[in-house]
Amino acid sequence: MKLSHRLSEIINMIGPQYEHIWDCCCDHGLLGAQILKQKLATTTHFVDIVPELMQQVEHKLQLFFPLSTDITSHWQVHCIDVARLPLNDYQGRQLVIIAGVGGDLMLQMVQQLISAHPSLSLDFLLCPVHHVAKLRAMLNVSQCQLIDEQLICENRRYYELLYVSQPSANQINLTSAPLISLFGDKIWQSHCAEQSLVIQRYLNKLLKHYSKTANTKSALDSRVIEGYQQIADSL
Predict the structure, then answer these.
(1) Measuring CA to CA, which residue among 208, 207, 210, 188 is closest to residue 198?
(2) What is the distance between the alpha carbons of residues 229 and 235, in angstroms, rounded to a whole number?
(3) Against a cut of 0.70, is the pTM above it?
(4) How far apart are CA 203 and CA 224, in angstroms?
């Protein structure tokens, strides 16, 4: 099955030399299967909490990527809560990919993983649905450093792809990479008319959304409105 534009862009963002890539909330396993095909990691981990889904994914993996015949296509299936990933059981560079869930839930997942593994340096590639500002705020407070970010549009829905690195606790003060922005940086940079239109429409949508809660907005919402308005005024 052909990958969607969103999943293709996630694949294109993945850097080299990962020993372990965790495809979380993997649904039908399309993203992880492409990671296997392109051999982007020594081991690809398929993660979801729904047993029936993981049984289907494992059956497809055994059919198309039999472990006994191709040691370079190593994979593991985990039916587990994302917040409980056994990251300490594995060595080498690890990338955790979470896509297709809301920003609030994703925030909880990432926060719990960071808290549970303070001695590990971890990379995250995140594609939340809604509430991106809250997620960015948490990543910023957690000292997550920006690797890359993109804004895409698929089926009239907008997605921010956030690729960040979380240094281990003893490395946080030793790195000079920029922290992830509260409102985005690279996602507002355009090199073509089509992307400029995507950016403008997305900004308008964000400002319209937050203006609806003008009478009940939190301190974070007020800061977000101001931040997005400043971006809109600068474009």
Answers:
(1) 188
(2) 10
(3) yes
(4) 12
